[in-house]
Input
Amino acid sequence: DAPSIAVVGVTGAVGQEFLSVLSDRDFPYSSIKMLASKRSAGRRLTFENNEYVVEELTPESFDGVDIALFSAGGSISKKFGPIAVERGTIVVDNSSAFRMDEKVPLVIPEVNPEAMENIKIGTGKGAIIANPNCSTIICLMAATPLHKKAKVVRMVVSTYQAASGAGAAAMEELELQTREVLEGRPPTCKIFNQQYAFNIFSHNASVLPNGYNEEEMKMVKETRKIWNDKDIKVTATCIRVPVMRAHAESVNLQFESPLDEDTARDILKNAPGVVVIDDRESNHFPTPLEVSNKDDVAVGRIRQDLSLDGNQGLDIFVCGDQIRKGAALNAIQIAEMLL
Ligand code: 11C
Output
């Protein structure tokens, strides 16, 4: 039988994308509940030609729900995730609340599907499966096929992250500020505490005592967990750029075994969910605009790292739609694996 599903945080940017991905992929369901905070309850929305009323999220919301897709922020996940599990629901959680919990699998379906093999639908037993951070997903979609071939020992990442990573309100702020600046008016800064349009700045996540921000530490810790390798050396610098909805990342990889760029390009061409855009002649490489609203992560600038001898390193440039593969699509692929 098709599962009953619930979307928690349905009015947000990722919540809305959950609906379009469910529809695009013909995800089977017997019923679907649209859940959000009290503020959004009562709103009407149309999905696959049916009209739904957004319901306020309560513990009872999960009665009879097989799969719940959560994207309503960490505190909602912390509060309602365990409640849903108690009621037998399998939660696919897009927040950071449970990612580093040892009992919770952290899954990119193309990378580590085995991590969730013990979780089964229809047993009446609830569970939480965590969706990694978008920057981690986009990076590992490209780095993992190369890691499987030559074993990455060190990875250095610099990100160029879009507005969507900070939610729908940040996307609106970017649009509004762009108009304001072009019209010579002072930019309205509500989501970010500094001008975003025509500017770049260090990621808005809190800066920790070690000087890294939380976004950077997510890349470090989540990579170790997903690759099941506590020794993998990862360092990251995460930056917000005035782009609407797709993240870009420069990734430097150092390998245990040599890997030449032609082999790497072939591996990436055959990797599921990855497309190679690597045209040196026309200087055409991945861009956030080209991957926006697309499922695949694009990789280009594939070249040998000149600073390392013996083909021991590669530089690549990766772009992926933050709301899609970075969030909603990955979560729904996880849900598909449960079916
Ligand atoms: C961004 N990655 O682009 C983010 C925010 O842990 O899911 C999402 C935070 C998370 O800003």
About this structure: The pocket of (2R)-2-aminohexanedioic acid is lined by residues 95-96, 133-135, 161, 165-166, 215, 218, 322 (CB under 6 Å). DSSP finds eight helices and 15 strands in the chain. The first strand starts at residue 4 and ends at 8. The chain has three domains: 4-132+327-338, 135-162+200-322, 168-198.
